[in-house]
Write a structure and sequence with these properties.
With 268 residues, the chain is an alpha/beta fold. The chain has 2 domains: 158 residues, Periplasmic binding protein-like II (D-Maltodextrin-Binding Protein, domain 2), CATH 3.40.190.10; 86 residues, D-Maltodextrin-Binding Protein, domain 2. Helices cover 44% and strands 22% of the residues. The chain has a 5-stranded mixed beta sheet. A 4-stranded antiparallel beta sheet has the order 3-10-4-11. The protein has a two-stranded parallel sheet with strand order 1-2. The radius of gyration is 18 Å and the shape is globular.
């Protein structure tokens, strides 16, 4: 295996900007970033194109035998988050036909959990959301696309899946975790552990100086400062006992609805 820089996935969306902002300021020459949305980064890790990344939590669980969890960071919400939305023509309880984003495996699995096992198979959204809504009950959008659609009032009903999860379980919803390929973690343990430490430093710097991150994000993303500030307050980036409990419950329910065949062991 190459001893070059660690190849790190970087989610190209507002939700992870606080962590990546500070990783960038650390300017570690041993980290090389590749930008993408969660589904693309998941594939890149599994196909040996990346060494480590934030990964959709359900995809981590599906491939846990090939991965090592970095139990220091996540993308987590405890309540409404805005950026994981089901936009529908009918109320949530009447939704059956859904076109789902191709960019996030966790959100699709979560929607299955919340709707239940009797819902027909989802279809992949491959056309503009407003066009799809003319023939399906709802469309599932994530990240910046969901934020824009929410501000624009895409559909009569908008259901925040993180809020729905919180109301149902009383637990935080862990949308993504950080994981390294098992071979990378075994052959370069010091480098992977170094990244885990830098992720903690990034979280601490964000907590210490949130306004600096908000202002920097406003220069990169098409949202006003006040909106970004409120949005960031809805998210957490650590991976402590509460996040571990929330993730474990999500994976249990995902298995019950057929989204996961085997429960992984979560690092203590």
């Amino acid at each position: 295996m190459s001893e070059g820089p660690l190849r790190v996935g970087r989610i190209a969306a507002l939700n992870m900007y606080p962590v990546y902002h500070h990783l960038a300021t650390l300017a570690d020459p041993e980290l090389v970033f590749t930008d993408g949305l969660p589904a693309a980064l998941n594939r890149a890790v599994l196909e040996d194109e990346l060494d480590v990344s934030a990964m959709s939590s359900i995809e981590f669980a599906r491939h846990a035998s090939r991965l090592e969890l970095l139990p220091t960071a996540s993308i987590t919400a405890s309540g409404a988050v805005d950026s994981i939305q089901l936009f529908s023509r009918v109320p949530f309880e009447r939704v059956e036909r859904v076109a789902v984003t191709p960019h996030s495996a966790t959100s699709v699995a979560l929607l299955r959990v919340l709707l239940g096992t009797e819902v027909p198979p989802f279809e992949v959204l491959d056309e503009p959301p407003d066009v799809a809504l003319a023939r399906v009950d709802g469309v599932l959008l994530i990240a910046d696309e969901a934020l824009v659609a929410l501000q624009a009032g895409l559909a009569p009903h908008a259901t925040d899946l993180a809020e729905r999860w919180s109301q149902r379980t009383g637990l935080p919803m862990v949308f993504a975790v950080w994981a390294a390929r098992e071979d990378v973690a075994a052959e370069r343990p010091e480098r992977v552990q170094g990244l885990a430490r830098e992720l903690k430093v990034a979280q601490e710097r964000y907590v210490a100086e949130p306004e600096a991150v908000v202002k920097a994000a406003a220069e990169r993303f098409p949202f006003p400062v006040d909106y970004i500030r409120a949005y960031f307050r809805r998210l957490r980036y650590g991976f402590g006992p509460a996040e571990r409990r929330g993730l474990a419950r999500f994976l249990e329910l995902a298995r019950e609805v057929g989204e996961l065949s085997e429960l992984p062991r979560l690092a203590a």
